[in-house]
Amino acid sequence: MQEGTGTTVHDERAGGLRAARLGTVEPVPDALDLAATESAITAIFKRANSSRSVRRRSGYYEGMDVRPALRVLNVVVRSAFLLPALTLIADQVPVRHLEGRIHGFLVLRDLDDKLLASGSLIQLAHGNRVTTELSFSFNDGSVHQETSVFSQHRTFQLLTYHLVQKGPAFKRAIDMSLNASSGQVTIRYTDDDGKEKTITDRLKLPADLANGIVTTLLGDIDPAVPKTIVSMLLATPKPRLIKLEISPLGEDLFSVGGFAEKALRYAVKIDIGGISGLIAPIIGKQPPDTHVWMVGGKAPGFLKSEGPLFQDGPVWRIELASPVWPKTSPGQKQ
After folding, report:
1. Is residue 325 part of a domain?
2. CA atoms within 13 Å, Cβ hemisphere of 241
3. Mean pLDDT, range 158-184, rounded to an integer
4. Counted domains in the chain
5. Per-residue pLDDT band at 263 (split at 50, 70, 90)
6. φ/ψ (deg, to 5) at 305
7. b/e burial code for range 185-202 (CB count within 10 A of at least 16 → b)
8. 15: domain range?
9. Distance CA 102, CA 104 (A)
10. Is the alpha carbon torsion for 36, 37, 38, 44 positive or negative?
11. Which of 29, 85, 227, 294 has the smallest CB count inside 10 Å?
12. Is residue 133 part of a domain?
């Protein structure tokens, strides 16, 4: 079965911180349903029509007939879906700090501070080639794993990416891999009926792709720059390219051992683009922003983030974790 040009879908029904870096931002919905879009716009017009009547001075009209306007808007919406999506100009982030070896520990909580998962980030660098592995093990048995390989020669450039999400914590099981140079994308997922499906596609991927390396880029973005735009490939479940708008929001205070420190806070906003991006806020499909707190200075690093990890998912908080030692050390007498 074909889903769009060049995309093949197979039915497979089968019997940190620099101490941590993470880069998942919530996937956006696939191309918005046209009927749902028109229905939402119609509802808006009807609400406006019922809230106030528009009368001529002569009193001939008790209200405005919205049907002609809807017919025009219907043509506009249908035409817009046939046009290429509107895009923002994206940036490759220059390397200001070379990445190196990292082994950090993380915790994932909901906004009520309930512990949901523990995780780690391991990063190794071989020259200008860097591999990061981010993983979370959830209390309910769910798993989130990301592996990103990128180069750091003058600018950051993603080479390969692999994401696995499975278990009851997630809306659907997803296994997505991409090769940035060849454009090969493979997405395996479970649909609403529990069927396993695979999508394979070959896309022209941009050089500023940021899958799995968002906080790496945040450590090298100049906080004086009002907005930085990069690209991301999402599984919706079909592959979809979107833009991330990264904006600094100022400084927040935190403390370590009773001493005050400052964190740089960033907002990461998903720009869907095209008519879908214009309509998404109207029908409640605009994903929430992800907020990330970074420590600045000579060695910038991740401190905390708040945002969803998957499409229509809740906002979760990810923070650095400190080791908890037994009260009695092995060298002490029992």
Report:
1. no
2. 22
3. 97
4. 1
5. very high
6. -145, 155
7. bebbbbeeeeeebebebe
8. 8-32+89-320
9. 6
10. positive
11. 227
12. yes
Q: What's CA 298's distance to the chain center, in Å? A: 27
Predicted confidence (pLDDT) per residue in 299-319, tens digit: 999 999 999 999 889 999 999
Pairing mode, strands 228-235 and 174-179: unpaired
C-alpha–C-alpha distance, residues 133 and 121, integer Å: 6
Contact in structure between 320 and 17 (CB atoms under 8 Å):
yes
Tell me, what's the pLDDT at 39? 57
Strand-strand pairing, 8-11 and 196-202: antiparallel
Q: Whose structure tokens read 């002609």?
A: 68
Q: What is the pTM of this model?
A: 0.73
Place of tokens 């869907």: 272
The angle, 0 to 180 degrees and rounded to 10, between the axes of the packed helices 34-51 and 67-82 is 150
Count of beta carbons in the 10 Å neighbourhood of residue 204: 6
175 C-beta neighbours (distance < 10 Å), count: 18
CA dihedral sign, ordered 83, 86, 89, 95: negative
In a domain, 83, yes or no: no
Q: Summarize the confidence of residues 10-30 as an average pLDDT.
A: 43
CB 201 within 8 A of CB 148: no
> Would you say residue 1 lies in a domain?
no
Q: What digits encode the pLDDT tens for the residues 31-67?
A: 444 445 555 555 555 554 554 444 444 444 444 455 5
Instruction: Write down the residue that tokens 């493979």 correspond to.
Output: 186
